[in-house]
Amino acid sequence: MKNTPRFDPAWLEREHNNRARVPESAAIFERWAHDSAQARAQGPVLIDVRYGHGAGETLDVFPAPRKPGSPPAPVLVFIHGGWWRSLDKADHSFVAPPFVQQGACVVVPNYALCPAVTVPEITLQMVKALAWVYRHIGAHGGDRDRITVVGHSAGGHLTAMMAACDWTQVGDDLPASLVKNALAMSGLFDLEPIQHTPSLQAALHLTDEQVKMASPAWLPAPPQRERDRGRLSAVVGALESSEFLRQNRLIQQAWGTRAVPVSEALPGLHHFSIVNALADPSQPLHRMVLSLLLD
User: Fold this and answer.
1) How many domains does the chain divide into?
2) What is the pTM of this model?
3) What is the pLDDT of residues 218-247, one digit of tens each?
């Protein structure tokens, strides 16, 4: 398998270099930073709340608007991307306001970055973050029984891992269906090609064992313990590389349509504009996530 063309280093570099594929990526990142700073300034928001004691184990909470007697709000947890080696929750605050304005509570967690930690260690950090959300989000107006997880790129990988998690093994107080809905944007579900991409492997240091334990497509499909709960939707920009398109198809092929009812390439979107679409109420992707939240 490792001698097939799909593990040609030069080809893998081209397929995974999203910044080169999107010449305006630097301007997009600047816009994200500007809009995110504005979102935090306008608030309300709780910054750098600790969900653990390790490096990077903080999250930001954008509480839902609260009216006397109103029920708890659905919760959106957004996990950022960056190849597990870059970017920060502070770069993605702009995702929150459009959903808060629709009555949701939004949580944006951070995690430590490779090479200081491994991808499996980051995965366990997100498990810890989601457990914190379940245990504490009620104090911020959120409904712990309506948690939807959305992630982009490496965050899409982590989202799938959260969908596959056996929460009853994490804590006696956690339900098996902790994640009500999940949506991975431009997710990475097979880590073996990434292990063979030199510029990524230089920071990630993926081992064969880590690839095996942290590739969602290599894991059993999460059991559907309750009707219409715990399912994963997978979307990708139609303008993304063939490898990202393959990854998006793969998770539905691996887990089946019951666990992954949606596997869709969204027209006109590339690896970064798909995040902009998430935060744009006029876009189908935003409405898709809103429907998951309000389901």
Assistant:
1) 1
2) 0.96
3) 999 988 766 556 799 999 999 999 999 999
Q: Which residues pair with 108 in a beta bridge?
A: 60
- CATH code assigned at 202: 3.40.50.1820
Domain, as residue range, for 106: 5-294
